[in-house]
Amino acid sequence: MMPSRVLIISPNWIGDAIMAQPLLQLLRLRYPDVAIDVLAPAWVAPVWQAMEEVNQVHESTFKHGKLQLKDRWTMAKFLRTLNYDQAYVLPNTLKFALIPWLAKIPERIGYLGESRYGLLNVIHYDDKRHPRPMMAFYAALIDKPDGNIEGRFESLHPRLHVDEKAVDAVKKKLNLEKGTMIVAFAPGAEFGSAKRWPVSHFSALAARIIQCYPGTQIVLLGSKKDNDVCEAIHSNVPGTLNLAGKTSLKEAIALIAGIDLLVTNDSGLMHVASAFDLPVVALYGSTDYRHTPPFSSQSYIMSLDLDCAPCQKRECPLGHHNCMEKLMPSLIFEKVKEIVTSKYLR
Question: What is its EC number (predicted)?
Fold first, then answer.
């Protein structure tokens, strides 16, 4: 049966939400007239609002790790009135599978996760021995559990869209001059310190860029949790602008749409820049760039590929953090220089 209304239950992370967009692109290709709505946490909602495939975003107030059964029941009652034909449950927990079941949505699709038999009635299985990139992982939900998404997925990439007026407005608010080259750094990472390039390295890179390209504005992006890291870089290099926690996600997305280059740890903002097809220099150590790579046509993965990496740990289990410590600023600057030269001196 051709669905007329579909609900996507969002992951809790910005990067995962963006990497789920190919699923929506495939839905739109298969069912051109379908209305696609999203249930998402407030802190992720602006990402979905920047996707052309999304009809409406319902913001949830669920707290991470909390059951909040009464709140889920209230949300389910509301969703029941909207008569969805299908729900794609992207988080792997029981808590999120409860919502479409309580809402009596006929077809409830997702991975088995926490043994969600009954709550889901179209169950997919993930082979932990052969993990797929996250975009393919989510996109595979469009087919039957034994279907093969490979080949049809590769031409689809996340794309965000922001009105040019919103870009100009946020630049004006932050006193960023028109025509100035803007290089953004995203030095934070939610997962833990093992993912983070050292503050000293970001600082050295910032100083070198400002020295070689006078007038360049370097902006430091992140949430309130990243303020200490960003402030440390700003203290080392006063010419930088610390915006961590000072912009909403909606404003940060609009600002990223107007930058020239992003240097970033493996983070949600990396995927935001990729979705605008911007130059992205992505720094990898403890995480696997084959699993969550940047996907811009101008993406550059910088990794030493040490024998101990990727360890997938929050903190370096060997205590030396060589995967990031030995990824030297001079190497990253050469890549930045290559990008700037190709972008401005063609």
Answer: 2.4.99.24
